[in-house]
Automatic annotation (TrEMBL):
The protein's role, per its UniProt record: Binds together with bS18 to 16S ribosomal RNA.
Record's keyword terms, sorted: Ribonucleoprotein, Ribosomal protein, RNA-binding, rRNA-binding
Gene Ontology biological process terms from the UniProt entry: translation
MF annotations from Gene Ontology: small ribosomal subunit rRNA binding; structural constituent of ribosome
Name the record gives this protein: Small ribosomal subunit protein bS6
GO CC list: cytoplasm; ribonucleoprotein complex; ribosome
Gene (name only): rpsF
InterPro entries: Ribosomal_bS6, Ribosomal_bS6_sf, Ribosomal_S6_plastid/chlpt, Transl_elong_EF1B/ribsomal_bS6
Record keyword Calcium present: no
Annotated HAMAP family: Ribosomal_bS6 (MF_00360)
Annotated source species: Oxynema aestuarii AP17
Family per similarity comment: Belongs to the bacterial ribosomal protein bS6 family.
CDD domains: bS6_chloro_cyano (cd15487)
Cited PANTHER family: MITOCHONDRIAL 28S RIBOSOMAL PROTEIN S6 (PTHR21011), SMALL RIBOSOMAL SUBUNIT PROTEIN BS6M (PTHR21011:SF1)
Length: 111
């Protein structure tokens, strides 16, 4: 199966403590790995002010995950986030596929 590169940005409730935030991040990373995602990289962007109020929250904890998979784990991840009380928004973007360039044959040396 073809592997694609995905980026999921999600916002956690600002009232979660540091321990609950770390637990939520680990839970989503593990979910992706269990469903076959590779190269899971997470960036904790910290608490930031939202552009507009969401569910009575003016701030949120931003987290970005980049990973490679065939696409099947994305639906599972988004379903889990949709049902979660700790996630207030999420967005997944499929990025360009890294094409491996064909190796050019070396021209014979001219004497």
């Amino acid at each position: 199966m073809k592997q694609f590169i995905y980026e999921t940005m999600y916002i956690l409730r600002p009232d979660l403590g540091e321990e609950l935030t770390d637990r939520a991040i680990a839970k989503y990373q593990e979910l992706l790995r269990e469903h076959g995602a590779t190269n899971v990289e997470t960036q904790h962007r910290g608490k930031r002010r939202l552009a507009y109020e969401i569910d009575d929250h003016r701030e949120g904890i931003y987290v970005q995950m980049n990973y490679e998979c065939d696409g099947s784990p994305v639906a599972t991840l988004e379903r889990m986030m949709r049902l979660s009380e700790e996630v207030i928004r999420y967005l997944t973007v499929k990025q360009e596929v890294r094409e491996s360039e064909p190796e050019e044959e070396a021209a014979p040396a001219q004497a």
